[in-house]
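Much of our argument rests on the idea that a fold can be written as discrete symbols. In the encoding step, the backbone of a single protein was reduced to a row of integers, each denoting a local shape. We regard such an encoding as a compact summary of how the chain folds. The record that follows shows the chain in one-letter code together with its fold in token form:
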Amino acid sequence: VRTNRWRLGGGGKMAAVTGRLVTAGAVRRGWLPFQVVVRHGSKAVTRHRKPIHILRQKLLAVTEYIPPRPAVPERCIKPWEQEIHEPSILEKLIRRDVEFTFQENKMIAVFQNNSINSEDLRLLRHRLMKHDIRMKFFPNRVMRSYLTDTKYKNLLPLFIGRNIILVSKEPKTKEMLQIVRSSTQISLLGACIEDALFSRQGVVKYSRLPGMQVIRGEVVSGLTQITSQTCQLLNNGPVLLTNLLEQYLKQQGDAVTGQKESATTEQKETQESQAS
């Protein structure tokens, strides 16, 4: 900041003293000078960095230090940090539904969803409902968290992609396969039937078995046949004993009659001899 000084033609000292007094008085009264010079603009850069020569760049790139790689990767040395996931309220509700599904149903089949459209899915669900087979969808995260601590943990490899779960209170594999056979957009991966795990081939073989009514009829007929044979075997002994006793009595009776006849013939012979 530069201010105008009062200059007197006579003496320099007097002018300097008077200027100081005037300036001090003006500052004391709050007066500011009328002319203020402020310098603007940036400082000029006079030195620029020269680019490195191409040969020097090549030399630096060739001679650059490359640290050796460790024998064991760092990701193998450093322990894997697993994030603790707290289930939300919705996940807890879905988990409860999954638990109820596994407890109340005897047949749980897992299918892979190969981008089936909504119309085909609706028709398939309607056809399955006629046989009391229900279709359910559960997130893989919830399914894996539930199956890890249960006896169904061998089903974990099936829950990877988009899945469809078919459940029923009674094992109806034959009806299920007949309905699903017409849809090529879903494929069977495995099933859990009456607490037993089956692969795809195992489910097909299980569906070829006769129904429960037929098996029960065969069991009842087998049991009745066994009971009838048991009664027959129990009656064989007394009947045989009775026949033997009857034969013995008959033989005894025949022997007695034979003795009587021989005795009568002897008497007749003796009488004839005496008469002669």
The chain has a mean pLDDT of 80. Residues 75 and 81 are 11 Å apart (CA to CA). The first strand starts at residue 107 and ends at 113.
